[in-house]
Specification:
By secondary structure, the protein is an alpha+beta fold. The chain is 20% helix and 29% strand. Helix 4 runs parallel beside helix 5, helix 7 runs parallel beside helix 8 and helix 9 runs parallel beside helix 10. The protein is globular, with a radius of gyration of 27 Å. It binds (2R,3S,4R,5S)-2-(hydroxymethyl)piperidine-3,4,5-triol.
Length: 734
Amino acid sequence: MKKSLLFLIIVIVSCYTSMSQPPMGQAQTNQPPDIFISLGTQNTDLVYKVNGRNGKVYQAYLGSKLLNTASLSQLRDAGHQAYQTYGNENLFEPAIRMTHNDGNPSLELKYVSHNSEKTDANTTLTKILLKDPVYPVEVTLNIRSFAAEDVLEQWVEIVQKEAKPVKIYNYASSMLHFDADKYWLTQFHGDWAEEMKMQESELTSGIKIIDTKLGTRAHMYQTPVFFLSFNEKSDETTGELIAGTLGWSGNFQLLFELDEKNSLRAISGINPFASEYSLQPGKVFKTPSFIFTYSDKGKGLASRNLHRWARNYGVLDGNKTRLTLLNNWETTYFAFDEPKLTGLLDDTKKMGLDLFLLDDGWFANKYPRNNDRAGLGDWQENKAKLPNGLGYLVKEADAKGVKFGIWIEPEMVNPKSELYENHPDWVLRFPNRQEVYYRNQLTLDLTNPKVQEFVYNMVDEMLTKNPGIAFIKWDCNSMITNPYSAFLKDQQSHLYIDYVNNLYSVLDRLRKKYPSLPIMLCSGGGGRVDYGALRYFTEFWASDDTDPLERVYIQWGYSYFFPAISVCNHITSWGKQSLKFKTDVAMMGKMGYDIQINELNEKELKFSQDAIVNYKRLSDVIWHGDLYRLISPYEENRAVLMYVNNNRSKAVLFAYTLNSRYGEAFNRVRLQGLDPAKTYKIQEINPSTEGRRPGPPSEGGSSVRSYTGDYLMKVGLSVGSATPLTSAVFEITE
Ligand code: DGJ
């Protein structure tokens, strides 16, 4: 690291300025020297080479740390331009494409300068300035390296100084090149209640695109994350790969193009679909960030890198604690009143939970929000349900010793609402076509400053009036169904981009005033989960599907890219499995409840109260520890994973048996991440309310046993039973 930094400082001083290309055959001595820009982390190097011959910047290397800086000068560039333009020698998918004022559709980018600055002890920001030699267009490649986490973040800034606006058609955040024998792409797709289904396939010649055009609730079908494995498929502990994700809460595009030489380019950014952007002279077009990590030890390490990065930099308050809660969505839907809610506050307390979260249905009077067909947008307490307002509930909660949280969906409107009646021009809709609805609602036009003000004020006024509100669930249940903004007039192709940027600016304002209020990101389940949004949110609702069998897969999927502290899992009445199974599944992330507490029998209530105590004791390891996925539900009839804290003194292991065939043997599981020299106590917690589980007892048993870390990692443990839909949780203590 130190060596490469020193090298960087040297190359900054020898900044290349000449843009002229020496004629063929000219003596090499007149040619400016090649410059190497090394963007290393602790274990990774990304190296760009400025070719002295033509002044262009190429990606020369991406992989494990090069131990000898002398190797840098031996790197070839293989023609892989770092930010490939259109209209020049490039005949494949470009990172950037624009048309100049004179109609010329080409761009050429040459190196001007670069500099590298340490933003803190762990983080270095490198800016590489590129310029078109003919047109006044500047592009800055930004690369932030997070040394300890082995994560790189890339984004781009585009500025033009022509007389009039310039149209840009492509504006990638990142372009990466690879030369391997084979490429395996792992993607995650789904729908409402079936998020994050993993699929892996070998890339073939041509283009593969993962994208969305949904605008809002943008990730309902595709999540902006991927693994790209090189040569062979990778597994948890072996294989070379990158794990990448785009921090953008709107339309995204991840494009993989395999060319005739078997070189692959991966281009990540905002989806250019219907989004050509008219860039005003002097204005900066800033792309969202592409975040990635390289691993030569499989997907497990890649996930741990991203999780650490996310806790330190990607998720709001990722290193802090979270509130356990009781939510009322599944138990009451829209049918509640003050006495009912007061009872739920009591239940929250009785369970030992921190907070009660009041969901949808508490607002609107002219068109009361008694179902999803009316009231959205009218954010006044419904007088029939809450005659004493939110303030009363906040006070009641306080008196009972619990906190109070509230659901909102401020970006949306039902046509049956006063908001729609009073401000039809604030709604995304075509002026001359019938409206198309999703969940009976429409999206507000956040490109309009008046709407931004409305959304900000709605949240701000609610929090000012009720300073005791300790939690928000921010929902977004519709995609953009009628993509037309009255405000944008003749710049409709700015809609998808401006919407997201303006959502972020509203959230920026709110976060300035309320920096640490926990807010759950929700979008009809996990329809909007990405690191662009998570800068403002402490956690996200992973899915409306809370059947714990399905949930194992959904949570497993998210675990590849998002840390456990950010993934909200609730115990509900979905699924016929035991309360223990539901509880054990919810515990692997941020646990909560959305179940009729008054229907729990005495044993179940006691089991839940104890489980919450256990969870609170273990949550530090789950939220802040390292995740090791041991057995994948995609490969076996069970799922086993564990979290280990930083100094390897405490761990927790979850084992879920999903199914089993007659005579199927579940072999011992070798643990990971422990200290081989330490001796650990293993204790099974959350014992079943039905007494001992059927089937062979696991070695943890109900009694405490001791093993060395070495034994646990080499010999392993039998965990869980062969009975379908059973589970076991082990607390592992030095
Ligand atoms: C969708 C969310 O995912 C649910 O949890 C719930 O909040 C409903 N919206 C409320 O309308």
